[in-house]
Amino acid sequence: MAFNCITPSVVFQEVPNEISLCFSITGCKVGCKGCHSTELWHEDNGLSLTNTNFIHWLKKYQGLISCVVFFGGEWQPNALIDKLLIAKSHGLKTCLYSGEKHIDINISQHLNFLKTGAWQEALGGLDSPITNQVFRDVISGKKLNHLFIKAIDVNTFNTNTDDANHSKTTLVDTNSFKNSLKANALAISTFENSTFEPYQFTQGANNVAA
Ligand code: SF4
């Protein structure tokens, strides 16, 4: 079975405070409605990411990156674990973005960071206070979603927000908008306080679809 990826790229926002080399693995079976990366659905897309190829990419970006992030690949745990171990042996942190709700502990034990949860347009991505998605520090178990939510200054009324799809939105100065910002800030605070529960790691091949 292929373990293919599209051409890796350096990303800055997916793992807060890290410069990451991002590998998007093809063959995703989650099937989120409104998926922004349908090219990842077909496992034959992209190029084979062998261990040798992976090491080549790490050497190419040696000294420039601090982390490796995989978009998917949990459906081939052995191939993914190989890459995580190699990344760690090169002194890099590791992160997995998954559309699943739970990830096998055989994978998660090799991760520093883990994002779980399918894309649901109505709930938004990690920068949304009502998102179903969760980004955690795997070592501490702490939820880190707050790092994706941009600070909002309700006194200046203006902010630029990079959303999960990296588009830029400029918000407008109106009284109604001022009120919505205040309500949103309260919702963020309430949400973060009410959902700070430890992640339940699971054993076995049980990547339950969200
Ligand atoms: S997890 Fe969902 S959003 Fe991500 S590639 Fe798969 S179907 Fe698309």
**Helical coverage, percent range:** 10-25%
Radius of gyration: 18 Å
The shape is globular
For CATH, the homologous superfamily is named as Aldolase class I
Low-confidence segments, ≥5 residues, pLDDT <50? Answer: 157-178, 184-210
CATH topology: TIM Barrel
What letter string, H or E per element, gives the SSE order? EEEEHEHEHEEEEH
Task: Give every kind of bound small molecule, once each.
Answer: iron/sulfur cluster
Q: In terms of structural class, how would the helical and strand content be classed?
A: alpha/beta
- The second-level CATH architecture is Alpha-Beta Barrel
Q: Roughly what is the average pLDDT, rounded to an integer?
A: 80
Query: How far apart, in Å, are the first and last alpha carbons?
Result: 24 Å
Count of alpha/pi helices: 4
* Biggest sheet architecture: 6 strands, mixed
Number of domains: 1
Which CATH first-tier class would you pick? Answer: Alpha Beta
Residue share in β-strands:
15-25%
Short description:
It contains four helices and ten strands; from the N terminus they run E-E-E-E-H-E-H-E-H-E-E-E-E-H. With 210 residues, it is α/β, with parallel strands linked by helices. Strand 9 and strand 10 (168-170) form a beta hairpin.
Describe this structure in words.
Helix content is 22%, strand content 17%. The chain has 210 residues and is α/β, with parallel strands linked by helices. It has one domain (4-146, 198-207): TIM Barrel. The strands form 3 sheets. The protein has a 6-stranded mixed β-sheet with strand order 2-3-5-6-7-8. A hairpin with an 8-residue loop joins strand 2 and strand 3. The longest helix is centred in the last third of the chain and has 20 residues, at 175-194. The radius of gyration is 18 Å and the shape is globular. The site of iron/sulfur cluster has 10 residues, from loops.
